[in-house]
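Blackboard transcription, Thursday session:
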Amino acid sequence: MSQTPPAGIDERSLDHAEEWLADRALLGRGDAGSMPRRFADHLDEGLDLAAAALDLALFPPREVPPAALRARVTARLREVAAAANAAATEPRAIGASSTASTASTALTALTGGFAASRSGSTGWWVAAAAIAIALLAWLPSLDPRGASPKVGESGESAIAALRQHASTKVVACACTDDPLCRADKVCGEVLWNAERQEGFLRLRGVAANDPRELQYQLWIVDSSRDARYPVDGGVFDVPAGEEEILVPIKAAVPVRDAALFAVSVEKPGGTVVSERRFVAVAPVS
Amino acid sequence: MAKAAPEPDPTPNEKPSFDGPPILPRVATGEPAAINECYDRFGGLVWSLARRFCANPTDAEDAVQEIFIDLWKSAERYDSSIASETTFVAMIARRRLIDRNRRRQRRPPMPTLPEQSAAPEESIGQAEMSEDVRLAAEAFEQLRPEQKQVLRLAIHHGCSHEQIATTTGMPLGTVKTHARRGLIRMREILRAQGKLVDEAGNRPGGDEA
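(Written on the board underneath:)
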């Protein structure tokens, strides 16, 4: 290895670090494993850049992106820029649960996996949409600034901040006829802000679950995407004795045009292929 | 925040082009006009990479969006004395694409062409390519044949060592060695030619950049 080892690092250790960096450049961070912390300040991105330059040299970019993609990407970048500016002056929402991140990882596999193996499985979203349309006929309008439910202070603060945004949508959440939903028709609300990619599900009257047996999972139907690939909004539990819960929505991928939120009952940890047992739906009118 | 400049013609280019004055420093400052310009300059590059790594166009479009967000957040790290903007953008894109594939715990189907092709798909003398890319092509030709074979497979779709071992029949350990040494050799050659200096300005042999 011709690179001069930094002070305090022997050549053998540097070789080890170089191997790690080469793996990272070719295989990604996860496959490369954990980087020895003591090397972190001494190594650069030279191998990543070499791999990138080689990629461009071996396989020159030739494809022209779809014309519509430009508008999508630039609009999203403006949202990000605006959110970054807003974040500098406004408090952030409370964090999502750890179970949500597990489900997010799982759903990341959904889009590709479905495309490969379940290309014809549109049925359950069609069914969900049908339920939503039927419920729209009798759903009462929900005052977006209605009485505060009994949830934690931090959650209420985050919701209050989100409500102040003009672009935040507030939609009523309706019970299905599933026995796990015991509310009388309306069982909560969804607040969603597409610019901030942030939202909350407030749910009440839904039966407590045993996480060892089942969990609830939130899905988001994004009308800008293929209907077969709903976006995972996270996995959550309803603890015993809690009449009302507040769930931060952690969308696994950007949601551009939310058309429907739905809560399903799934196996512990969530799923990438839903059991299609819905307890609540919230259509965005 | 800089004053917004008139937006460019949104008509996409007929062919990806990466020439032009530096754009990433403007992206780093959050200049609104830089959003469109950045996409117009690198959209073709990022899209081409995404199409190669993603199973379908829908997936590729999502990936492109994520990559540009990454780029927006990473632009301030760009150093023109280390690499070209093109190479930096490609690095950001590759990281995201490889990471997406890894998270899915699956990779695109094995390519059939790259292993058979003895040379880059085309002569690298493209006018729109940056100098470090051209030098990378020259450096690649200096590698040992086995290193070239392994790197071509690893680079093309981010194939795992195991996949490459299966395809080539090489032992797994040999594949890893060729991949690592080949890439490290690439970096050394590029540095020796004045490209890809490290952050401390070091070149092989301890030269100052």
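Lecturer's comment: Residues 18 and 86 of chain B are 7 Å apart (CA to CA).
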